[in-house]
Amino acid sequence: MIEQESLSGTLLASQIDSTLLSATATPPEIVRLCREARTYEFASVCVNPVYVALAAENLGGSPVKVCTVIGFPLGANKTEVKVAEALRAIADGAQELDMVIALGYLKANDVLRVEADIRAVVEAAGDQAQVKVILETAELTDSEIRAGALAALRAGAQFVKTSTGFGKGGATLAAVRILRETVGDALGIKAAGGIRTRQEALDLLAAGATRIGTSAGATLVILERAQSFA
C-alpha cells in the first residue's frame, strides 16, 4: 500500500488508466486522449474495443499501454463472446483487458461459473494481455465482493477492479479495503467509477488501490510540463 505523502504527480500519473468509454466518443477524441496520455505518462488509456487499433497506432513507441473492455458494461455476454472479444482486442493491439464478471451468477452464489468465465478470458489473453476483473462492487454485499475477488484470484487474473462507471455506484474506500484484505498482495486493485479529484485518487491508493481508472486523469496530476490540449 502506498502512503499518500509519497505520491508525487509523476507517480500518481503512472497509476492512472485514462479512460474514455462514452458511446459518443469520436476518433479525434481518442487521438487527443492518447496524446494527453503520452504527455502525462499515464499507465494506460482505456477505450472501447472499436478504438483499440486507433489507440495502439497513436501510442506506438510509448510506454503507455492500450486497455479495453470485455463484456462491457453488464457482464452478461456468453463466455465464448467474451473470449472472442478478448482475442480480437489483442489482435488490434490491446495489452490490458478489463472484463466484467457474470454478475447475476455471482449474486446467485454460482461462484464456479463466475470463475470459469474469468478463467476463459485469462487463458485467451495468455501472456499477451493482463486481465482486470470488474466486480461492480456497488451491486454486491461485502461477502459477494470477497467471493468475486477470490474467483478472480483463482482464475489467474492480474487485477480486480471496483466498477464499470456505468452502474449505480463507483469506487469506494470501503470496497477497496475489502478487496485488499481479500487478495493481499497477490493481485493489483483498480479503483474506478466517479473519481474526479486528486484527493479521491490519493485516498483510494492509500486504501490499497494500485491503479486508478478515471476520465479526469489530467486534472488529477500536477506536472511542470502540463499543457492544454485543443
Write the layout of secondary structure elements.
Elements: H1 9-13, E1 16-20, H2 27-40, E2 44-47, H3 52-59, E3 65-70, H4 79-92, E4 96-100, H5 103-107, H6 111-125, E5 130-134, H7 142-155, E6 159-161, H8 173-183, E7 188-192, H9 198-207, E8 211-214, H10 217-220
Helix pairs in contact: 2-3, 4-6, 6-7, 7-8
Describe this structure in words.
The protein is α/β, with parallel strands linked by helices and 230 residues long. Helix content is 43%, strand content 16%. It has a single domain, classed as TIM Barrel, CATH 3.20.20. The chain has ten helices and eight strands. α2 runs parallel beside α3, α4 runs parallel beside α6 and α6 runs parallel beside α7. It is globular and about 45 Å long. The termini are far apart. Pathway: Carbohydrate degradation; 2-deoxy-D-ribose 1-phosphate degradation; D-glyceraldehyde 3-phosphate and acetaldehyde from 2-deoxy-alpha-D-ribose 1-phosphate: step 2/2.
